[in-house]
């Protein structure tokens, strides 16, 4: 990788995305930060102390193909290449038993978590292939390898991210491009706060999550960022198509 690699991060105004930005910025990456709302991106970048000279902020909805083309185009126009891609934007949807879940929730979660990840790969991989190098990290979840009551739609979407990761890895390997997935457990972000609130008893949900985690606590976004940074880096040069759980020991595999 070059001395100042260029990395695109989607969902970069949120907990894990912003932590990835901070970590990679500290390692000297030039960043393209993508999220739905420009002013949220500006606030996030400012609060994290990201250097405006090496950071491009792009408002885009990852579920819309023209927006995805837009952030890829903006990255190339500004920096001329894309070395790393953190395909991170995601939503949890509204919890419900399968028989009570609405098709609208299914479609929205799929639009962001599956179509958004697919479109990111569809438009970033050709850039990396043309460079003959690049590394992608897709954000799946423990929900990508386990079932979870009332989370069926989210679980399906995160299983799909694993299928995409494995396929992209074998398709892109000959082009010098690596593709891996990170599977976080319960991480301290706004998404986790919403999941706790939606459960109807936030305190009970939090203590159940802690009890189910051998390390006895939630993970911090920076602990996911560290795994992402490793997978993006040349240190992981022989790692592709892999699933990295970062879950405090929660998964029994
Ligand atoms: N927090 C956890 O415990 C946890 C666990 C496993 C996996 N994950 C995954 O990690 C990723 C990041 O989660 P987080 O906890 O940081 O969530 P978060 O809600 O804090 O941040 C998600 C960000 O994605 C953005 N986003 C949502 N829809 C978008 C769209 N259509 N286009 C562009 N941006 C969009 C949001 O605006 C937000 O800034 C998600 O894919 C999530 O499913 C999180």
Helix and strand arrangement:
Blueprint: E1 6-10, H1 15-26, E2 30-35, H2 38-47, E3 55-59, H3 65-79, E4 84-87, H4 103-131, E5 134-139, H5 152-172, E6 177-184, H6 190-198, H7 202-211, H8 221-232, E7 243-246
Parallel strand pairs: 1-2, 1-4, 2-3, 4-5, 5-6, 6-7
The chain binds nicotinamide-adenine-dinucleotide.
In brief:
The chain has 253 residues and is an alpha/beta fold. It has eight helices and seven strands, in the order βαβαβαβαβαβαααβ. The protein has a single domain (6-189, 220-245), classed as 3-Layer(aba) Sandwich (Rossmann fold), CATH 3.40.50.720.
Structure report:
- With 253 residues, this protein is of the alpha/beta class.
- The protein has one domain (6-189, 220-245): Rossmann fold, CATH 3.40.50.
- 47% of the residues lie in helices and 15% in strands.
- It has helices spanning 15-26, 38-47, 65-79, 103-131, 152-172, 190-198, 202-211, 221-232; strands at residues 6-10, 30-35, 55-59, 84-87, 134-139, 177-184, 243-246.
- Strands 3-2-1-4-5-6-7 form a seven-stranded parallel sheet, sandwiched between helices.
- Strand 2, helix 2 and strand 3 (55-59) form a beta-alpha-beta unit.
- The chain is globular, with a radius of gyration of 17 Å.
- The structure holds nicotinamide-adenine-dinucleotide.
- Residues 10-11, 13-17, 35-36, 61-63, 88-91, 112, 116, 139, 141, 184, 186-187, 189-192 line the site of nicotinamide-adenine-dinucleotide.
